[in-house]
DNA sequence: CGTATTTGACCGGCGC
DNA sequence: GCGCCGGTCAAATACG
């Protein structure tokens, strides 16, 4: 048991910047604009964490593709446009995107009853406990999120992911899926959930940087690009007040490719 | 048979 | 201290 390897950081998504640990407030920017930025389409997203410090600020952006040539077109094929909203951690206000954990006085529906599976069947064999790192400090990797209008939950991004968990989201009828990069030493994680407000939108959150190239070429999905025909942005406006992208991204993100990866 | 997913249990933090 | 909550593990299962 003790020979078990590091359980690595379990402190993954929550951002404990000091005060409110659970206060997941995000500000996102809608990105058809900054999508133009060269920094983005470069590699999908390379976030130089060093620029801000580990516990500071960092965000990236991934240019995404709807990837729904044959799958998502069932029903409304007009959709499928990929759009983005970058989520910045450690933002000041505007609780929105993933504010599932906070709000609770609105559409409170099936939160604990129907969605939560009643685990009344204890496993007798489960005596082994998950080992933990000895006094290991958990450092949160940079993470960023964006929303995509798609009927597919898990968008293809050129990497291979292994699903390692799924949980019901509070105040949301849709579950949240946890993925991890299948590569050996790559500890990039990914969280996918559907918006509780707009079910046609999925929220994808990445954490960490890949230590390798993606399977196909690199960069993000570019299978078919039938990107924006109409106004993909229209539907993505559930945030109360989106911030301006300028300054945020350009300031932090460095234009250098991920060739300096250790490991 | 190997690999990926499913799924309940478990864990650690926080709030009460 | 207990319960909630979000996240993760791992055994079982599904899938090729």
Automatic annotation (TrEMBL):
GO molecular function: DNA-binding transcription factor activity; sequence-specific DNA binding
Keyword Iron-sulfur: no
Sequence intervals crossing the membrane: none
Biased composition (Basic and acidic residues): 125-136
Renumbered residue ranges of the record's region Disordered: 1-20, 97-136, 240-263
GO cellular component: nucleus
InterPro entries: WRKY_dom, WRKY_dom_sf, WRKY_plant
Biased composition (Low complexity): 97-124, 240-249
Keyword RNA-binding (UniProt): no
Protein name: WRKY DNA-binding protein 57
Species, as recorded: Perilla frutescens var. hirtella
């Amino acid at each position: 048991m003790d020979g078990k390897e590091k359980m690595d950081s379990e402190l993954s998504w929550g951002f404990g910047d000091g005060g409110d640990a659970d206060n997941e407030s995000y500000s996102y920017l809608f990105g058809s604009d900054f999508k133009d930025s060269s920094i983005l389409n470069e590699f999908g997203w390379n976030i130089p964490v060093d620029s801000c410090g580990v516990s500071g600020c960092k965000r990236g952006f991934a240019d995404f593709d709807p990837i729904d040539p044959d799958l998502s077109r069932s029903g409304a094929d007009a959709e499928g446009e990929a759009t983005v909203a970058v989520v910045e951690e450690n933002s000041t206000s505007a609780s929105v995107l993933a504010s599932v954990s906070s709000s609770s006085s609105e559409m409170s529906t099936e939160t604990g009853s129907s969605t939560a599976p009643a685990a009344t069947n204890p496993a007798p064999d489960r005596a082994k406990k998950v080992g933990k790192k000895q006094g290991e400090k958990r450092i949160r990797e940079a993470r960023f999120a964006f929303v995509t209008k798609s009927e597919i939950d898990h968008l293809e991004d050129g990497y291979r992911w292994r699903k390692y968990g799924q949980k019901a989201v509070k105040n949301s009828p849709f579950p949240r899926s946890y993925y991890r990069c299948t590569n050996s030493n790559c500890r990039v994680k990914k969280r996918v959930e559907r918006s509780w407000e707009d079910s046609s939108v999925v929220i994808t959150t990445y954490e960490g940087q890949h230590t390798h190239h993606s399977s196909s070429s690199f960069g993000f999905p570019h299978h078919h690009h039938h990107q924006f025909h109409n106004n993909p942005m229209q539907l993505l406006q559930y945030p109360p007040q989106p911030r301006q992208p300028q300054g945020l991204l350009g300031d932090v993100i460095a234009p250098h490719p991920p060739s300096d990866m250790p490991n």
